[in-house]
Amino acid sequence: MNKILLVIRREYLTRVRKKSFLLMTILGPLLMGGIFVAAFMLDRVDTEVKTIAVIDDSHLFDGKFKDSDRLHFIYSKDPVDSLRGRSKAQGLFGVLYIPATPNISLLEKAITFYSESQPGLDVISKIKFTIEKEINTQKYVEAGIDEEKLKSIRTDVDIRTRDMKNKETSTPLTSYLGFAGGLLIYLFIFIYGAMVMRGVMEEKTSRIVEVIISSVKPFQLMMGKIVGVALVGLTQFLLWVVLSSIVYTGVTSVMLNGKSEKEKIETMMKVQPGMQSNQALQQQFMQENGEAGTKVTDMLSSINFPLLIAMFIFYFLAGYLLYSALFAAIGAAVDSETDTQQFMLPVTIPLIIAYVAAINVINNPQGNVAFWFSIIPFTSPIVMMVRIPFGVPAYQIILSMVLLILGFIFTTWLAGKIYRTGILMYGKKVSYREMWKWLRYHN
Could you give the CA distance from residue 119 to residue 121 in angstroms, rounded to a whole number? Predict the structure, then answer.
């Protein structure tokens, strides 16, 4: 045990003292803060106004297209072909042609937008919204339906979700936390697992391992490297959490300083990735956070953050330990990084499947797919982290944890048999058949 602790200490101190570790630990939170600032600044810098000429032969949309901060509409009676040829000289971004049709229904498929470059989603969405609204209005008139009465009887249901303790909850927030936790574990397993594999390969190819195992058993060396790198990863993650919180608090306080509550919510939507292009998500965000943002506290209080953090640490460590043993075995079996590709695929496939399954789990966190993938050790670190914010029965969490620990013990035993043979073999191309022979050795 003392020898394993010595290897752990060596691996940990060697890596945390590297300039690359310190650099990435500091740059990680700064880069995250930079992303928020960049999203906010790019939204303010991108002030170009696109001019669109509208040729409306149907005369149904006269004055209906309203200007916005990014779009300016002008109406023209010139022939469409002539205007298309002069669009660049006149500084037009595009030409919207609405032909005259004998039937309003035919107009739905007859409208064309001409532009030099492919228009963005915001341009098409704005045009489509206006056209659909006016065509619907015209259809109401033809059908003898009073649009105002129709609006008055139209129902917009806002379902508030609460837990059994009557605390406000939020499905988007829960989904975000779960998926973010699963994604972090997915990335950390890959990053630090590969770090273990490269470390083993470097010691093997440099023949340093021959000196080390003269006083330390191969299994002790493998376990020391795995646990040492795990502690490096945990240290870096905890530092990222602390530094990211400081950076995020500082950035948001500067951006939101002196703004009203409504302006604060709108600003936060601009700096959140994906908010700008998702109108439905913006509306839901506004509805759930409210004008004064009073629901946010209730939503956050409904999530058991101590459990979430504890489970993240457990599944991060246990999932990493399970996979890093296999990564270490691969590093011991080969002599160069190019030879690792054939052995990496079977190890990484369960992780990829778990990541894909996480999308299904968000939609149905209590379904059979969610249950089984959160129990199977090779997929449970990612899938269970996605499920936990939604609420998982205690027996399922305990079952998942026990099976994951057993899975780690099994993979460590398996990897140990490969490691002790492969670590001293040089210059030989290893195949699956060869590795199977190593597993059957009784020494």
Answer: 7
